[in-house]
Structure formats: C-alpha cells, structure tokens
Amino acid sequence: MSYIIESKTIILSNGYSIEFEYEIKKALTIKEIVIIVVDPPFDGVYNKNVFAISLTGDFLWRIGDVKLYYWGDTNCPYIGAILNDDDELVLFNWCDTAVIVQPETGEVIRTYQTK
User: Which pTM value belongs to this model?
Assistant: First the structure.
C-alpha cells in the first residue's frame, strides 16, 4: 500500500502526511489518486466530506454540492466510495443518492437514487 491511515491522518509513502478535521472513514486508490471519505460529526451538517489527493500529497478536489433525491433533512454526508463494475468512482451518501464522479477532477458525471 502506498499510504497508512492513522485516525485523522494519511501518511503517504514519501513521508508526506495530511491531517483532516475528522477521522478518515475510507480511503480508495484509483490510479495515482487517493479518494478520502472522512467521518463527519453527528451534530452538524458536513456534506462535503470527500477529498482527492495525489499519491505525492497534492490536493486535487473536494466534493461540491450535489442535487439529492432525498427531500428531508439536509444532513447528507458521504458514507462510502467504491469502484463499480465499469471502473467508475461511485460515492454514496446518507440520503439515498449515489454520485458517479470523475476521479481526476471531482466533476459529477451522473447521479442515481439508491433506494
């Protein structure tokens, strides 16, 4: 593996480390990019909790606002990230929205409802 996760910190193989505001819940490597999902607090709205960095530590993007399929609470942080069968990056949030994102730029390609 080209990095180590220690609570809120990711330590890259070159020794460079980045500390996030909250604990790192998931890290996924796609080519030379690390997608990081942090575990947001329960007492506030923190929906932009997905980040992308290069394996050398360069900041690439942070997820932006995404139209949701859910009409209730606005607290809809991301809880997971996977590569689907088509090798697309898919982010999942609490509010039944899956977001397919361009790993290099963070651009939203499409969304779909999960429930």
Answer: 0.92
